[in-house]
Amino acid sequence: MTSSILLLKNYFHSNDLLFFNEYFHLNNSLFYSEYSVILIFLFVAVLLSVVIVALSYILAVQNPETEKLSTYECGFEPYEDARHTFDVKFYLVAILFIVFDIETMFLIPWTNVLGQLDIVGFWSMIDFMFELGIGYIYIYCVGALDIN
Amino acid sequence: MLIFKEIQLLPEIFLGISIIYLIIHGTFISVNNKYLLIQNSVLYLSVLIISLFCFLLINNTIECNDFQIFNNTIIIDYLGSFSKILIAIVSIFCFLMIQRYLTVQKINYFEYSVLILFALLGIFFICSSNDLITAYLAIELQSLSFYIMAALKKDSAFSVDAGLKYFILGAFSSSLFLFGSSILYGVSGTTNFEDLKNLFFWVYSSYDCTQDASDYTFVKDVFINGGLIQFALSFIFVSLLFKLAIAPFHLWSIDVYEGSPSSSTFFFAVVPKLAIFILLVRIFYSSFFEYTAKWRYYIVILAVLTIVVGSFAGLEQKKLKSLLAYSSISHMGYTLIAFSTGTFEGLQMLFCYLFLYMIAGLCIWSIFLMLQLKYKYVKKQNKDLADLSSLSKSNNILALFFSTVLLSIAGLPPMVGFLVKIGIFLVSIEVSMYFVSIVSILCSVISTFYYIRIVKIMFFENSTAGKLYQPIKSHISIVIVCLFYFLLFLFINPTLIYLFSYKITLLLTMTMM
Fold this sequence. Notes:
The complex is a heterodimer of chains A (148) and B (513). Chain A is mostly helical and 148 residues long. Helices cover 72% and strands 0% of the residues of chain A. Chain B is 73% helix and 1% strand. A two-stranded antiparallel sheet of chain B has the order 1-2. In chain B, α4 (111-127) packs parallel to α12 (272-287) and α14 runs antiparallel to α19.
């Protein structure tokens, strides 16, 4: 029994897998060794999401009714739509956060290597922060940071 | 005197510092209790800044050598310097033309002029970029300023709509550029145009020296022989064609040109095309020249499609802005024919056509901005063609100039547009693209119809009463007169454009070998 399995294994390794290996260089390919983990991760993620959604659809008891699906308004009938127009100040806050967050992100590696940079490296970062500071002064004076 | 190499970038550094100063200056004066309107003074200050930029640039111009600075990401050569000077001079005239329009349309933001300066800074960096990352950053700087300029008129739904469409399409095309650049980096390990040129300029179809190493067949077939590189190059190409509004990627430009305020459309139509073409030339003539043979025929198909679309779709336009938008689309088709030839003369004709396109575009859009209806102007900023009826009776000279510039754009002698169009067809015949030449000549004839229709409306319309126009100040009309004279004079003696384009092409191809 074991000898037949060994024979099968030998046959498998000898012809097809060798050709496969030699063409795609799977043994010593950086691509394969680095990215195969990510492929497995992708498959597991997709599989998990599909399983969760499918199980929740199959196993749940669904008896929809208009009263159950209507919006909740704490006892009485809702008299207007709960959604209103999106306020632009939220978007503005998000954009400004991104800008200053990116500035912080550039500051962090600069502080790490500042000891090895010459004077030009120091003043480049100071110039960058100065320009973003000008932007901040503009925003403050124009009034984009007011909540009202 | 060269103190250090990076001093070559002094004009751009000056522009950057003056933009920063202008922001602070505008903010602290206009955000007060009095809310002073400083948009006029900031506009004239911007004119001053660009003139000083021109002066610094002319001071810095290198005649026959090229420098690579900032770790080889920026190249200073004759092509970049000349195009920067041309774009700066054209934008000075743009600023002077739009001053009256901004006052009438009540665009009271001083930020408008600052945005134009930002866009110009981006364009100047595109002209002298030597790296894919620098090119992408400069394209984004220019594009972002243009998105805001398209949407700045907040009370007009058209303007906001145009800005949104421009933003979505522009961001999409920039992402395509990034995707192509990332694949190129993955294949070659560098983003520098100079290094890519050293790697890929001559790509031999059979690597005889490495034929014995059979381990590398997969790498050779996929990476080197062109599959993956052509894939990446096609993404970069499509992204830049999006920005130039070439069919079938032209649909955004009609809505954006029509909805934006006319001063922004002035900039969109005239200024950035030269910069994007310079970037195209640097990537496809200087870095990846051998791949020209592989994609030439597909680009020619796109060029013919563009010319056909621009000619046929312009026939049924009733608004002047859309007409000029379609005409600029078809002009980009002609330049793409010259671009796809791959020869020395093709490159020279490309630059000739682009210079003439900028000058003729400047003239046409200046006339468009100068014609302001006396009544109901603010509500109806986009002119119908019928508004121009019997312009010959109210302003004979302006009608004459308008007709002359239109016929120059159409390609009729005795204006210089005829010479550059003939040049494009000559270089395409030289590389045996006969069918392309025939089709584009026929479409050029078809597009002449809608130029002549404007001439007919102005001169020969049988209407009882034309529209009244505001009088034009004489110091603005000097620009139109000078450009009109240029267009006529250059037909008699086109040496000026030919010499500049020849010098540019010579210096560009000399450094390739």
